[in-house]
């Protein structure tokens, strides 16, 4: 999405808003817009699952701060770094699959 995504979040701190506006701007600029459908089967992680994700990221040296069960900016940054190392799209979005992957590679 680029730098505009972060700028949009400063105006309205909603990922959905920033994503929608950034995609519209990308299309106006001649871009392709969405290239695949939005995943509809993703369930958000519980606080205890986010805490486990944070602990696993911290154990790999990817600093998320003190595990608190809230997927804030530090957690998303650490998660993006992990996703890059395993060849996944670095979107920083915590999913049950990512948590499972992290826990399996932490053993």
Automatic annotation (TrEMBL):
GO terms for biological process: peptidoglycan catabolic process. This is Peptidoglycan binding-like domain-containing protein. SUPFAM superfamilies: Lysozyme-like, PGBD-like. Residues 47-100 form the Peptidoglycan binding-like domain. GO terms for molecular function: peptidoglycan lytic transglycosylase activity. It comes from bioreactor metagenome. Residues 57-78 are annotated as: Disordered. Pfam families: PG_binding_1 (PF01471).
């Amino acid at each position: 999405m680029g730098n505009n995504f972060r700028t949009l979040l400063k105006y309205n701190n909603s990922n959905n808003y920033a994503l929608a506006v950034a995609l519209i701007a990308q299309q106006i600029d001649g871009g392709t817009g969405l290239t695949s459908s939005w995943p509809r089967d993703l369930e958000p992680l519980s606080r205890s699952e986010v805490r486990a994700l944070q602990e696993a990221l911290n154990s790999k040296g990817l600093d998320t701060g003190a595990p608190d069960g809230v997927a804030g900016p530090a957690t998303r940054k650490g998660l993006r770094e992990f996703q890059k190392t395993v060849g996944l799209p670095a979107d920083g979005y915590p999913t049950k699959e990512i948590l499972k992957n992290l826990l399996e590679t932490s053993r």
